[in-house]
Design a protein that fits this description.
The protein is about 60% helix and about 0% strand. Helix 3 (about 45-55) packs across helix 4 (about 60-80) and helix 4 (about 60-80) packs parallel to helix 7. It is globular. It has helices at about 10-15, 30-35, 45-55, 60-80, 85-90, 95-100, 105-115, 120-135. By secondary structure, the chain is an all-alpha fold.
């Protein structure tokens, strides 16, 4: 992300393309993703970020924001005990090819992961998969 002013823009604006309206019989998830793409990314909640990242939408713009949130929150959450975070799970399951195109963010995620202890087995598996993919 280039600047904080970019966060005032929507994914539609940042990507420079508008998706066609979803069909009337589209799922709730499809309709939600379409709506979220029109909102300024600074207004997205952590859950909405997770949802978009989980659907591989807007990754060049949302991964930096997600990593910022994780960097700020993960150590404190992990200190409280058993750590299992939906945003982290979504980030860990991003297609490995994305990390190859954004190596600085892969390194930042590795740094965040190094601060975590007492993880759920689900998160541990995701971390192992990410580390394998990021080392290729």
């Amino acid at each position: 992300m280039n600047s904080s002013s970019d966060r005032k823009r929507s994914l539609e604006e940042l990507e420079g393309r508008r998706w066609p309206e979803p069909s009337p019989d589209a799922t709730g998830l499809v309709k939600a993703i379409h709506t979220l793409r029109t909102r300024p990314i600074e207004s997205l909640t952590v859950e909405e970020l997770r949802r978009l990242i989980g659907q591989n939408v807007g990754l060049p713009f949302l991964i930096p924001l997600a990593l910022e949130i994780l960097r700020d929150t993960a150590p404190a959450q992990a200190a409280g005990g058993f750590y299992d975070d939906d945003l982290l799970s979504a980030v860990l399951t991003v297609d490995p090819a994305v990390w190859a195109h954004m190596p600085q963010f892969a390194q930042e995620l590795k740094n965040i992961l190094a601060t975590l202890t007492d993880l759920s087995p689900y998160i541990e598996t995701g971390i192992e998969d990410f580390r394998r993919a990021a080392s290729d």
